[in-house]
Structure formats: C-alpha cells, structure tokens
Design goal:
InterPro entries: Dimeric_a/b-barrel, Tscrpt_reg_AsnC/Lrp_C. The chain has about 90 residues and is an alpha+beta fold. Helices cover about 25% and strands about 30% of the residues.
Length: about 90
C-alpha cells in the first residue's frame, strides 16, 4: 500500500464543500482542514504508484475550487501502536 500526503490550497469560501468531495473519493482515507499555508490535507492510499496519477491530478486537482496541490509520498508508516510494539520486543511484560 502506498500512502501519499496531499497538501491542498483551495478557495477559502468553499473549504467544507471541497473537503467533502475529496473525502468521498475511493482512495482518500481522511481529509483534514488545517491552519497554515494549505487549507486541507488529504491522506491518499493506493496499491501502485501509477494510481496516484488517477487520484491526485486526475480527480483531486479537477475539483472546482482546488487551486494547487503538493504531494508527499511516504517511505514508511509509523504509528503509536507500531512504536510501542517495536520497543516492547524482548521485554517481559
């Protein structure tokens, strides 16, 4: 599974509608409304790198009101659960 973090600039007056449209896409697992340079952050999960082209420039960028995207592809995923399991290796509970 390939995870991409997509930073999205939008028309400020349409953030909720745009977020809902992005969240409804099959490969999008979460959409966050955030402060800072970008308005939204979308988590995109696909099986192949080529699928990113279908989702990001093919769908997200074509939503009316999306002005720009900046995509970051994850090398590895770390979660609190994963980190706790890694540090517990070899320890008796």
């Amino acid at each position: 599974m390939i995870t991409a973090i997509v930073l999205i600039k939008t028309s400020v007056d349409r953030i909720p509608e745009i977020a809902e449209q992005i969240a409804s896409l099959d490969s999008v697992s979460e959409v966050f409304s955030v402060t800072g340079t970008y308005d939204l952050i979308a988590m995109v999960r696909v099986r192949q790198h080529e699928d990113l082209a279908d989702v990001i420039p093919g769908r997200i960028s074509k939503i009316p009101g999306v002005e720009a995207t900046d995509t970051h592809v994850a090398f590895r995923t770390y979660s609190q659960h994963d980190l706790e399991a890694a540090f517990a290796i070899g320890l008796d509970a």
